[in-house]
Design a protein that fits this description.
It is built from 14 helices and 24 strands. α1 (22-31) packs parallel to α3 (97-106) and α1 (22-31) packs parallel to α6 (190-201). It is 32% helix and 25% strand. By secondary structure, it is an alpha/beta fold. The structure holds uridine-diphosphate-N-acetylglucosamine.
Length: 430
């Protein structure tokens, strides 16, 4: 099994190019099958989740041509099956985006129930409610979500909770429904806006994405498009916190600073300096880190996907910090790993109370999910001695070349796949 071996203690210094947003790429790739014309996508991250989705799309007849590592053309004129249940697709959360896309275009779909990170119960009732409001029947049978509609008719839908996935899924199906759909209490995340922009570039009529009311006038068909995916807010935020905990000086390039506001605000609060240009952010951390409080919230609040990374930083900040998770109830599993590195953190329900310690010490750690995995890596970069992070397939779901990008910033990190390679790394780094 592959692991990351890390020798902590080197400040990260330099520039890192941020890739396309995984959470925008997934719905955009799925929505590409909503036209029979060719779609060309640029800035696609080459990560496991996008590759699994593309594999599932090829499995139902979508023709894929990889132009290079980050660009792809897709053509869905030869789709021959509306049932998606290959083994890999069950592993990723975004499999359910194929439901909205296929239901919109073909009025029926069957997709394996979604997996993804085990960070909470992750209900799908709002997706189902939205599809039903548009006139579709939805059933769950034999591990599949099955949906079918004679006609899809626009509707007024009030989401009971702010859900990225449900907003995206209903938006896709409603794009090709008859008449107008209004989604109230919709998610406002940058990737929701990116999908709406992509669908509009294919001829959809969607207004209000980025606010909490989205209005969609159904169109009868979509056409081909060329589209560039937005930069990944969470990848950028992860490198920004890596700079903070290693007392480094890192510039994240190819970012949209507006998307990073809640993250940079917290970095400023804990004592880092930030320089912002049009498409880059520089984080310099030369002073001791200070405590703060943070609560995860839907965008534009502090992202739940950055909660483990900020907790790692607060674990090394003077004073007592409180982190409250409001989106996913089971997102503190990595804390026991941090405690093994010397952190002083107590979790009570959805709150973590953190008393900053002076240093972490290297240990062998188990990545419980994608973002927690990346957070344990940055804890290892700050720690004294050697840290080994197990289960890195989670990290590879959402970070492209994570260890190579860190290494280019001066980190001592290697991917190893045997005890022998680990020993070799230990000898090399001394
Ligand atoms: C997406 C992101 C994930 C991120 C999350 C919140 C993708 C592939 N994943 O996940 O990285 O952490 O947004 O920003 O883009 N809920 C319901 N019923 C539903 C749907 C959701 O109760 O039908 C609840 C969930 O249990 C959770 C909250 O709503 O408590 C938010 O979930 P949601 O925004 O849907 O997250 P995902 O789309 O799964």
């Amino acid at each position: 099994m592959e692991q990351y071996a890390i020798r902590g203690g080197s400040p990260l210094v330099g520039e890192v190019e941020i890739g396309g947003a995984k959470n925008a790429a997934l719905p955009i790739l799925a929505a590409s099958l909503m036209t029979d014309e060719t779609v060309h996508i640029e800035n696609m991250p080459d990560v496991r989740d996008t590759n699994v989705l593309l594999e599932a799309m090829r499995g139902i007849g979508v023709l894929e041509k990889r132009i290079d590592r980050h660009s792809v053309t897709l053509n869905a004129s030869q789709v021959h099956s509306l049932v998606v249940e290959d083994d890999n697709i069950k592993m990723i959360r975004a499999s359910y985006y194929l439901l909205g896309a296929l239901l919109g275009k073909y009025r029926q779909a069957q997709v394996a129930l979604p997996g993804g990170c085990d960070i909470g119960s992750r209900a799908i009732d709002q997706h189902i409610k939205g599809f039903r409001a548009l006139g579709a029947e939805v059933r769950i049978e034999h591990g599949l979500i099955k949906t079918r509609a004679e006609r899809l008719v626009g509707s007024h839908i009030y989401m009971d909770c702010v859900s990225v996935g449900a907003t995206i899924n209903v938006m896709m199906a409603a794009t090709l429904a008859e008449g107008q759909t209004i989604i109230e209490n919709s998610a406002k995340e940058p990737h929701v806006v990116d999908l709406a922009n992509f669908l509009n570039s294919m001829g959809a009529n969607i207004k209000g994405a980025g606010t909490d009311v989205i209005r969609i006038k159904g169109v009868s068909k979509l056409h081909g498009s060329e589209y560039t995916i937005i930069p990944d807010q969470i990848e950028a935020g992860t490198f920004m916190f890596a700079a903070a905990v290693t007392k480094g000086d890192v510039t994240v390039k190819n970012v949209i600073p507006k998307h990073l506001e809640s993250i940079s605000a917290k970095l400023l609060e804990i004592g880092c300096e930030i320089e912002e240009t049009d498409d880059a952010m520089r984080v310099v951390c030369s002073k001791p880190l200070r405590h703060t409080h943070v609560k995860t919230l839907p965008y534009p609040g502090f992202p739940t996907d950055m909660q483990p990374q900020i907790t790692v930083a607060l674990g090394l900040s003077s004073g007592t910090s409180i982190v409250t998770e409001t989106i996913f109830e089971n997102r503190f599993k990595y804390v026991e790993e941090l405690i093994r590195m010397g952190a002083d953190i107590k979790v009570e329900g959805t709150t973590a109370i953190i008393d900053g310690v002076e240093k972490y010490t290297g240990a062998t750690l188990y990545a419980p999910d994608l973002r927690a995995g990346s957070a344990l890596v940055i804890a290892g970069l700050a720690a004294e001695g050697i840290t080994v992070v197990d289960n890195i397939h989670y990290i590879e779901r959402g970070y492209e070349d994570f260890h190579l990008k860190l290494r280019a910033l001066g980190a001592q990190i290697e991917k190893v796949s045997s005890e022998r390679e680990l020993q070799k790394f230990k000898l090399k780094v001394g």
